[in-house]
Protein: SNARE associated Golgi protein
Amino acid sequence: MLKRLYNWVIGWAESPHGVWALAILAFAESSFFPIPPDALLIVLALGMPKKAFKFAAYCSVGSILGGMFGYFLGWQFMDAVGFKIIEFYHLTDKYVHVQELYATYDAWITFAAGFTPIPYKLFTIAGGAFKINFPVFCLASAVSRSARFFLVAACFYYFGPTIKPYIDKYFNLLAVIFTIMLIGGFVLIKYLM
Structure:
């Protein structure tokens, strides 16, 4: 079933509505849908490298709004909806750990979840349930999701189709390296100021 769903998502790349499908997919994935928008973003950027940044912008906005929606679900409907989504993805045991992460790092842990392959929807829903700082949550979501999608777009814009095999093979490693570099930058700024 997941493979069929994935193929359905990729099929939108051939549609004239592919950009809007990308934004909607990014919105849905940030709060409840299983397929990440990266796959459709890559196919669109691969087909039209000069529009890669436009695709990344649509993907980022959709994802940030979807993250806010996930926060709202956790904040207002955790018992009715939030726990059902978390149980559906078998993330119930991770929910307690996310609570500990939010207690330690507040909304900044959202940054790591937004950029890496960690299930972002768990953090958006849990963020609302734990009533973490909403402006910081939004900022962390905006920076991390945009960085993730614009990095993919930049690769296709500058390198075109030749970069695809490397992204497919090393995406998780690249995401972790970029996250470490960005967090290191924040720590350095904190100590310098």
Summary: The chain has a mean pLDDT of 84. The chain has one domain: 22-192. The longest helix spans residues 52-88.
